Amino acid sequence: MRRVSIATAILCLLAGPVGAKDEKGSYTMSGTAINKCSEYLSAYGQSQIKLKGETVSAAPRFWLYIGFFDGYMTAVNAQRSGKKDWYEGLDSYVIAAWMSSWCRDNLSKDIANGMHDLTLQQIRKK
What we know:
two-stranded antiparallel ribbon; 5 helices; 126 residues; mainly alpha
């Protein structure tokens, strides 16, 4: 059993990054990523984000966005080489405020577009 576990671990390490794009580079998004900015601004406006040490309170549906931001940042950091943390100095709550500003100027776009734009800004800072 131990040999199988070690062999599996080695194969996983050698496999490299995985992608799910078609031959044209397109892929399907789902969940919070496809929510429009107007929906995000509604959730953001209903959330009174209060940072008190380690305690944060916000509207329940707003946590979906926080989770999306964290997952997006983790995926970019895992897949893009050249820097350990492409979002250095930013956390989910700073990004939430940034996204609210970006969304006011881009009401018809979705949250994934906003994270893409933020990521490009961060990469250019390198």
